[in-house]
Each structure stands twice: as structure tokens, then as C-alpha cells.
Amino acid sequence: MHGGQMLIEEPVRLASVMAPSKPGFFLTKIVGTLGPKSRSIEVIEGCLLAGMSVARFDFSWLSADYHQETLDNLKTAMKNVNKLCAVMLDTVGPELQVHNTTGNPIELKADAHVLLTADLSKIPSKEILPINFPDLAKVVKKGDTIFIGQYLFTGSETTSIWLEVLETVDQDVTCLVKNSATLVGFIFIVHLCQAKIELPTLTSYDKQVISTWGSLNSVDLISLSYTRGADDVKEGLENFDEILQEADGIIFSRGNLGIDLPPEKVFLFQKSAIRKCNIAGKPAIITRVVDSMIDNLRPTRAEATDVANAVLDGTDGILLGAETLRGLYPIESISTVGRICAEAESVSNQSIQFKVIVKNVEEPMSHDESVASSAVRAAIKVKAAVIIVLTSSGKGARLVAKYRPPVPVLAVVTSSQASTTALTGTARARQLLPVKGIFPVLGGSIRDGATSTNEEPSLKLAINFGTSAGIIKPYDRAVIFQKIGDSSIVKIIECNGS
User: Fold this and answer.
1) Contact call for residues 396 and 481 (beta carbons, < 8 A)
2) Is residue 5 part of a domain?
3) Domain encompassing residue 233
4) Which pLDDT score, from 0 to 100, does residue 449 have?
5) Number of structural domains in the chain
6) In Å, what is the CA distance from 401 to each residue of 92, 221, 232, 375?
7) Are residues 275 and 409 located together in one domain of the fold?
8) How far apart, in whole angstroms, are the C-alpha atoms of residue 153 and residue 162?
9) Do 403 and 292 fall into the same domain?
10) What is the pTM of this model?
11) 52-100 pLDDT, tens per residue?
12) How far apart are CA 106 and CA 100, in angstroms?
């Protein structure tokens, strides 16, 4: 299975390992979660300049007003540094939580007893933990295992507890604490390892947030939380093709996977699922990569390797959760992950990825798909610096990016004056940001009946963008992909630096 191979260009010379890292461009996208440590205009500017392409707003805690202030700061920061950033609304979904309203650390000792209760009026302590699920006592039984972890699942034995159910009475569940740990933070996530939780994927709260805050702010992306137990993971594995067909992209929540699957199985799921996303041409984003950077300036060796391997596997993006939301080094977390991504991309065996995707495309290949793959092949053969896609819908840019070109895809997104769609050109541009390698450039508007783009101004916009970003030098070659009428065409130009 190609998805399980180490896709490294051979040979990787020792000299390349010893040489200093080159700062600059990387194709993999970084999603940053904005919160207490990353919501000021100054810090958000730093995150954008470090390489954040998507800002995630997690509605599992804090109010809509709080998130609105953060979003307003993001908009100001984008203007200040002249960078686009997509907005992702992350729903709560069927998540069981303990709200630690006091914020005080809760220390639990192995072999002690703790009471889990549905009575939310109780204050969390080492003796009692109130959970936002009234049917808890109905779905667990004696001997079941319950996991309670620090916000966003660290999985660390010092910050997460494993409980064994001893008894259920009315709405209360008495548990034996299996390991000593200190729960820190305002929210702890509860995971029932054997029980099936019948809760909707989209809760009434989620629907309310989407219809109000999400609609008001015209958010670009909505992520749906899903995993509630081992059965859900099995269901997801068995029906992954169907899920992928309906979704515009997939986020792999490895915090959940690490609890639901044996450790030795997590990598298999990650590699095979990313491969399926690549073949479908839909972005795959992984989470939980540099947890140690919540408190430290550098990731562990294993974490750095994990990020690189994800890039080599074909991931489109890396999602940083607690690292940017409440971590001490939000900007450094983004820049460090970006440098690792750049190094991995520099040795990635793009030809293998290209062949795998081509091999798995249904035949006969559509005209657009054939030309898009030819654009990538041409860029490789002529050693082009960039591929420029002239598009109004964004579809052409996604098709080109699907074939994993080793160079940036500059997507000049225009808007049609006659379009009846609710999405503006700017919104379509932002929605391209989670896709690996695509860097959207805002074009002008076109009249009804005109060709898909006005070529000369659009090319100039793209070349100016690439030149200012340092990815196009005078006399570099660029491959152009565009639709004219019902046809897709590819051509090669030389950037004369004028």
C-alpha cells in the first residue's frame, strides 16, 4: 500500500541533514485555534505571518460574544498584515464534559472513589464530578471504563484519569480511580469506552450557533465532531468512503482515535484514511501533533517526526488546538510546525504520490481532470516555479492541487457579476485555504458572457503575488491552467520580471 510507504525522495544525502534549514514557503496548511493566549491583534498578526491559514473557533467553551471579539481582532490583523485567513467554526457535537467552573486544579489519587453525577449544580472536586449528560447512569454498568482528560485529550497519565465503574444509583455513578492525576483547566472531556451514547452529531446548541454566529459572520468552514465510542470508530472505518463522499474535507481527531483504537492501530488508520482523501482530492487535516509545545518552546523528537511523517503521508494540514489556544508559545508553535513541514516537503517523493492518485482515478478520466493532472506533470518537467490557476469557482485549483504538485498553486479567484450564488469571490478564495499547496489571490469581477477570467490582469496579479512572496524570480517558468468556455487548457510562460 503506497499510503503506508515512507514517501521520501532518494537519496536523502547527509549533507541535506547537516545544512541549515531554509526559512520560507511551505505548502502544508496550518490551522490555529484562537483563544485566551492567541486572541490579541498582535499575537494573531504573528500567527498569520508564521503561516496560519485557517483560524479555528471552538464553541465547546466560552460565549459567542467572546468569540466575536476574537474574530473582530482576526479581521483587523488580516488587514494589518495583508493576509487571507479562513474562519472555521468547530461545533461541540456529542461531547460529554465536566465544566470546572472554578478553574482550580483537581487532584485525584489512585484507589480513591469519585462520584460522577448529572447534577450540574455540584462544584467539581476530587470527590464529585458533574457531567453534562443526564443519562450517564443508564448507559454504563459495573466494570465499564471511563476516561476523563484535560481539554482536547492530552492522553498524559499525569493529566488524565481512568475510572472503573463500581455502582450506579439514580443519576449518580460511583467509580474507582485507577491512576493518580491532576485535572487542570476549565473543561475536561469524558469518554465512555464501552457504552454507546445516543446523541445527535449536531446538537441544538450547535444549530443555534451556526444559524446565529456562523451565519452573521459568514464563516468559511464548519467542522462536525463525531466520535463517541469504539463503535463509532468502527462505523467510521466501515463507512469512511461514504463519509468522504459527503464531506468537503476530513479532520482526524487523533485524541479520540488514541482512546478508541489500540496504539498500534492508530498509524494504520491515519495512513490509509489520508490516502483515501488524497485520491478523492479532498483535504485531510490531522490534530494532536506538538502537545508538548503547550508548555515548552520546542517539540519532542517524536512529535517533530510525527509532523514530518504526516506530511510525507500526504496530509493537507496540521491543526493546532491547545498549542495555540492556551499554550505559552502560539506563534512559535506555528512557525516550528511550518519549518518541519517545509523540510518534509523538500524530500517528499512527489512522483509516487502523483502516480498513486492517477492510478486510482476512474477511467475514462474527465477532460478537466486530465488537463489538471497534465498541468502538474508539465510543471515538474519544465521545473516551473508555480502553477497559476485562473478560476471563479475554485474547482480548477482543487483539481490541480489534488495531484500534489511540488510547487505552489496560485489560484486567482474572480467573481462573476451575474452570479446568483451567495458566495463572493473572497469567500471562495478563503475556502481554498485548507487545501495543501493552494494560495488564493483575489482577482476582479467578470461580466456575464465573458471568458472565465480576464487573463492579463489575473496573470499579473498572480506573478506580483508570487514575486512579493519570494517564490517567483525573474525568468522563472509558470504553468497556467484555466477554463475557456467548455475547454480546459494548459500553457507555459516565462515570468520576465517586469
Assistant:
1) yes
2) no
3) 25-93+200-346
4) 41
5) 3
6) 30, 19, 31, 10
7) no
8) 12
9) no
10) 0.86
11) 999 999 998 788 999 999 999 999 999 999 999 999 999 887 778 898 8
12) 9
